[in-house]
């Protein structure tokens, strides 16, 4: 990759997803150590991601008003650090306080990524098939932290999750200091055409399918470590299983340019949904069989790596010109915001009342519905 912002953008992805590599697998274990029940754990995690419903759109509007993105990314990164420090306050072990902290922290932390995605695609220009070569640095960061903290949790207090997250948030801010907008300032966005884009059936279907896909993934992200812990997997093995899935994702990102030149976006998109259902079925039916769990994690390359890449590229294709930043913001709001929040809340309720196996079976049904929506209405 030759464009000058390659390393700042790659650094941002690295630290952002490294922080996610701590929070996603291990925040639930930290909350469990505080005595929280599955419904409370699901609510805290849902609050963290529910802010994605509002934050990307609100900050996207602010970016349009100010005419630039990089400065807002730096502001959001700095304020997310300030907000996260709230977990160290004396009330940090209580459910109401953590709900408040996650709401404020999530509003700032979730604001930056859509604008980094837009900056990345702006710089790539006609070479969007190279997106995976940059995005893979995020996966590498996730792998390193999920392995590192899996080992640390075997010998240290679970509060190491908080310390590691705070350090990585500082890394996000440092990398954000070197980001720059493509070609200077953003042109002002015209509201009319955006409404026309949003009324297209293929765009509505894309958002609907993405909402359902993340809804099906949310219980896995929120409770998979707890699920494995219930079946007596040690923290190191749990971390290795998480890392295995992201290693498979990295492998896809490396071959993504070759794949995109030979397979259409719609075919890849449908394939990701077709694989997700069997993945959740395997997790539900064979929780104590290590090699089955390892295989299910390898499918992450398809159910997230392929899915997310194609979704990003379809958004970039459907939201042209000055609307690309808002398109990425809406994608994050609908999928990683509303979809994840609904899945985490619903997953917490189902987990509490019916157990993990039943929750994964419901997730399988959700992916079947998503496949039907994508098959019927999503066109390139």
Automatic annotation (TrEMBL):
Q: Where is the Major facilitator superfamily (MFS) profile domain positioned along the sequence?
A: 143-380
InterPro entries associated with the record: HcaT-like, MFS_assoc_dom, MFS_dom, MFS_trans_sf
Where does this polypeptide localize? Cell inner membrane
> What do the Gene Ontology cellular component annotations say?
plasma membrane
> Protein name, please?
MFS transporter, PPP family, 3-phenylpropionic acid transporter
| Gene Ontology MF annotations | lactose binding; lactose:proton symporter activity
Q: What coarse category fits the chief subcellular location reported for this protein?
A: membrane
Q: Does the keyword Disulfide bond apply?
A: no
Locate the transmembrane regions by residue number: 12-31, 43-62, 71-89, 95-113, 134-154, 160-179, 203-227, 239-260, 267-292, 298-319, 331-352, 358-378
Keyword Transferase set for record: no
Q: Which UniProt keywords apply?
A: Cell inner membrane, Cell membrane, Membrane, Transmembrane, Transmembrane helix, Transport
Entry membrane topology: Multi-pass membrane protein
């Amino acid at each position: 990759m030759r464009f000058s912002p390659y390393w700042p953008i790659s650094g941002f992805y690295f630290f952002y997803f490294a922080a996610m590599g701590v929070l996603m697998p291990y925040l639930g274990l930290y909350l469990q150590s505080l005595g929280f029940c599955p419904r409370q754990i699901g609510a805290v995690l849902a609050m963290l991601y529910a802010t994605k419903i509002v934050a990307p759109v609100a900050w996207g509007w602010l970016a349009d008003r100010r005419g630039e993105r990089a400065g807002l990314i730096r502001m959001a990164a700095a304020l997310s650090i300030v907000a996260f420090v709230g977990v160290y306050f004396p009330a940090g072990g209580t459910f109401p306080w953590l709900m408040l902290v996650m709401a404020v922290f999530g509003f700032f932390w979730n604001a930056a990524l859509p604008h980094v995605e837009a900056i990345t695609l702006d710089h790539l220009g006609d070479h969007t098939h190279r997106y995976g070569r940059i995005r893979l640095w995020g996966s590498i960061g996730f792998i390193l932290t999920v392995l590192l903290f899996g080992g640390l949790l075997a010998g240290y207090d679970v509060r190491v999750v908080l310390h590691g997250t705070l350090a990585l948030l500082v890394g996000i801010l440092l990398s954000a200091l070197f980001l720059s907008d493509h070609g200077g300032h953003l042109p002002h966005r015209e509201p009319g055409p955006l409404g026309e884009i949003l009324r297209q059936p293929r765009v509505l279907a894309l958002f609907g399918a993405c909402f359902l896909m993340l809804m099906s993934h949310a219980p896995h992200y929120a409770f998979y470590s707890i699920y494995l812990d219930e079946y007596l997997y040690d923290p190191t093995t749990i971390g290795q299983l998480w890392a295995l899935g992201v290693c498979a994702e990295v492998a896809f990102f490396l071959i993504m340019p070759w794949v995109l030149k030979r397979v259409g976006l719609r075919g890849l998109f449908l394939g990701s949904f077709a694989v997700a259902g069997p993945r959740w079925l395997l997790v539900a039916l064979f929780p104590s069989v290590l090699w089955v769990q390892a295989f299910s994690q390898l499918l992450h390359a398809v159910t997230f790596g392929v899915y997310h890449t194609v979704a990003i590229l379809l958004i970039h294709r459907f939201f042209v010109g000055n609307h690309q930043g808002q398109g990425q913001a809406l994608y994050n709001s609908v999928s990683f915001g509303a979809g994840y929040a609904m899945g985490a809340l619903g997953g917490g309720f189902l987990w509490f009342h019916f157990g993990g196996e039943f929750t994964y079976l419901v997730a399988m049904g959700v992916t079947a519905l998503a496949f039907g929506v994508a098959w019927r209405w999503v066109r390139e």
